[in-house]
Design a protein that fits this description.
Shape: globular
Low-confidence stretches: none
Largest sheet: 7 strands, mixed
CATH superfamily of the largest domain: Vaccinia Virus protein VP39
CATH class of the largest domain: Alpha Beta
Number of domains: 3
Structural class: alpha/beta
Strand content: 25-35%
Distance between the termini: 59 Å
Length: about 450
């Protein structure tokens, strides 16, 4: 097999990163933008020892699950990798991806439940983060997503997976930035003013918080006037904040934010609890799908425990802990971000939740110091998963059950392998579709400690 050679093959399945897999004389070839059942002509682009990469040169027979993408920018943008596949089959693929990832990495043969669909599959994305740049000759502001595997911005004027008001706010920023002397960011030269625009939209109220991420360390008059114009233009913009990020980094938000006009939070609801979401607050981008996950976890605890003491680790604003508190004797939450824990305390008070104990501490440090045992431990780590040390401590502190909420099947599988070797049993894994039309999958794993034989 050589680069630029062409072969005809059928796509058999999809990886956990969304690429299709074909086999040519038993040799694995990864091809993006393909669906199981596609019969295609593949042009080889790279050959490695154990696999090759290719691209479609012709679709000979399309899969029966192929559909026309509903977004006109689908081919250019690349953010919704699976939008060319019908939604029901997307759910089936996510179930299969989870099953195969868990089996191949952890060695566990577990039946994966059917993926629970998102209540909304359009206009569901309630947080947008657009990088900002500027054209060299005309000085026109560009705002959108990066093309796949590049830092070239696709100028997005309409995105059907986010609320329409977000498109209007971004368009106003594009048109008016020049009037206030606001320049787009030049990533290579590290010059310009506006690096990103982040919008938090509330599914509860429809209100919006606009965050201008700037290449600066303090406010300047042009920016303040620009922020005021955004706030005055839109009735549904309840606040405009600025976030300072002058570092040479790919991290979007810096550590310092301030509200220039209006309120510094929007409100969102999960089950029957109301949360405030600020510029730097972590909160799920699809609140209605997130609510399905929170109900699932709360119902499991209510049906299987009476007055449990629960540990909510990697808690963020303690959204799990606050939502499940009324079926628990006590919830202890741990989060290393100080702003999140302060907001969690405020949120608990405003929701009249009095049985949540909140700690501002790195989870691994808390685990090492803690002596209490917990009936249930909820682990909701970032994509990189848990450290082995944290898993060791969670196992030590658990009386019975660990509920692991994961946004990455590969790190979930790795961590399940560690826990089962320690003496745990994975009783169920339930996928949820949080990020519709992408290859991302949210899973909730129920893990039980095996009781010693007396």
């Amino acid at each position: 097999m050589k680069v630029n050679e062409e072969y005809t093959a059928e796509i058999e399945k999809v990886t956990n990163l969304g690429a299709g897999i074909a086999k040519i004389d038993g040799f694995v070839v990864f091809v993006e933008n393909t669906c199981p059942g596609d019969i295609i002509k593949i042009k080889i682009t790279k050959v490695n020892k154990n696999f090759a990469n290719g691209k479609i040169s012709e679709i000979i027979t399309p899969s029966s699950h192929r559909v026309k993408p509903f977004c006109p920018m689908y081919n250019a943008c690349g953010a919704c990798q699976l939008q060319f596949i019908d939604y029901d089959y997307q759910l089936e693929l996510k179930q299969k991806i989870t099953e195969e990832t868990i089996r191949s990495i952890s060695g566990l043969d577990i039946e994966i439940q059917k993926t629970i669909s998102s209540p909304e599959i359009k206009n569901y994305r309630r947080k947008i983060q657009y990088p900002i740049s500027q054209t060299k000759n005309s000085g026109r502001i560009l705002a959108g997503y990066f093309k796949p595997k590049t830092h070239e911005i696709v100028n997005i004027k309409y995105c059907p997976i986010q609320p329409e008001i977000c498109d209007s706010i971004i368009e106003f920023i594009r048109e008016k930035a020049f009037d206030f002397g606001i320049q787009g960011f030049n990533e290579k030269k590290h010059t310009g003013d506006l690096r990103h625009v982040v919008i938090r939209n509330s599914a509860l109220t429809g209100k919006n918080l606009v965050v201008l991420v700037v290449n600066a360390t303090k406010i300047f008059d042009r920016l303040k006037d620009f922020a005021k114009s955004i706030y005055n233009e839109f009735e549904d913009v309840t606040g405009v904040c600025v976030n300072y990020n002058s570092k040479k980094t790919n991290v979007i938000l810096g550590t310092k934010s301030e509200c220039l006009y209006g309120e510094e939070f929007i409100e969102e609801k999960l089950i029957d609890k109301t949360f405030k979401i600020g510029a730097n607050t972590f909160f799920q981008i699809n609140p209605k799908s997130a609510e399905n996950i929170f109900k699932y976890v709360k119902d499991y605890i209510a049906e299987n425990f009476k007055d449990p003491v629960v540990l909510d680790a990697y808690a963020g604003i303690t959204s799990f802990g606050i939502c499940i508190a009324d079926v628990c004797k006590k919830v202890v939450s741990v989060e290393e971000n100080k702003e999140s824990t302060e907001l969690a305390r405020q949120t608990a008070q405003e929701n009249n939740v009095q049985n949540v104990e909140i700690h501002n501490m790195d989870a691994s440090v808390f685990f090492a110091k803690e002596k209490r045992k917990f009936d249930v431990i909820i682990l909701d780590p970032p994509r990189k998963g848990c450290s082995k040390e944290s898993l060791d401590e969670a196992f030590r502190l658990s009386k019975d059950t660990i509920i692991y909420v994961s946004c990455n099947p590969a790190t979930l599988a790795r961590d399940l392998k560690i826990l089962t070797k320690k003496g745990c049993e994975v009783t169920s894994i339930q996928p949820f579709d949080m990020f519709c039309h992408t290859f991302h999958i949210e899973n909730v794993a129920i893990i039980k400690k095996k009781q010693p034989i007396s």
